[in-house]
Amino acid sequence: MVLVRAYIAGFRWCLEKHYEYICEMDCDISHNPKDLAHLIEACEIQGADMCIGSRYVDRC
Residues of the chain whose pLDDT is less than 50? Predict the structure, then answer.
């Protein structure tokens, strides 16, 4: 439950600061930080409102 509260606090903080993008990744090296560029590109260039990455699906 503590992790959930931390996520909510972090998202609220970002929203209050009016950040254009909010990214969340686990820190257990299960995500490649280089993939962040692909997620941001999907929003910036391709016009997506939200982008979710998963190691369980192929890239679209």
Answer: none
Handedness of CA 31, 41, 22, 58 (dihedral sign): negative
Q: Does residue 10 lie within any of the structural domains?
A: no
- Rounded-to-integer distance, Cα 32 and Cα 41, Å: 15
Distance CA 3, CA 7 (A): 6
Contact 21, 43 (CB under 8 A): yes
Q: Which helix (H) or strand (E) holds 6?
A: helix 2-16
For residue 33, give its domain range. 20-60
Rounded Cα gap, residues 9 and 4, in angstroms: 9
- Please state whether the predicted TM-score (pTM) of the whole model is above 0.70: no
Domains of the chain: total: 1
